[in-house]
Amino acid sequence: MVTDEKWIEFTDQKKKEKVFEKILNTPEYTPLVKRDWYGLDFLYLKNHKDNIFWTEFQHITDFPEFLDFFPQGQTLEQIRNITNFYRSHTISDDHEFIYLTPNEGDRFVENTVQTIKLLLNQRIRTQLV
Fold it and tell me: I need a labelling partner for 45 at 20 to 30 A (CA). Which of 36, 95, 100, 119 fits?
């Protein structure tokens, strides 16, 4: 959830950039922007064959439902959807990132990881007191 909140903040800031002004509130907005969003995922997976997606995630065949508000089997279905999506798509070597660059993606991940670590450490300290 923290990542989702940070992503919303990040994308709201990105929408203020000049390159977004041309496409905001147009039918092309979502497909154009998501091409870069998913492009970063594809680029990462292409360059990191030792990633947990390739070594573990894609091989999941069973998964318990930990959240009782999801229908039985929903999590496993989502795992399969994600696996099928990332196994059947990739990015071309000449893809030009316009709306989200690899450096911006890396910074987002680093900043979000640091935020989550901070929150977890605060939570641990609170429980110890």
Answer: 119
Amino acid at 108: F
> In angstroms, how far is CA 50 from the centroid of its own chain?
18
pLDDT tens for each residue of the chain, 129 residues long: 899 999 999 999 999 999 999 999 999 999 999 999 999 999 999 999 999 999 999 999 999 999 889 999 999 999 999 999 999 999 998 999 999 999 999 999 999 999 999 999 998 888 876
* pTM score: 0.79
| CA distances (Å), origin 88, targets 23, 91, 100, 120 | 28, 11, 22, 35
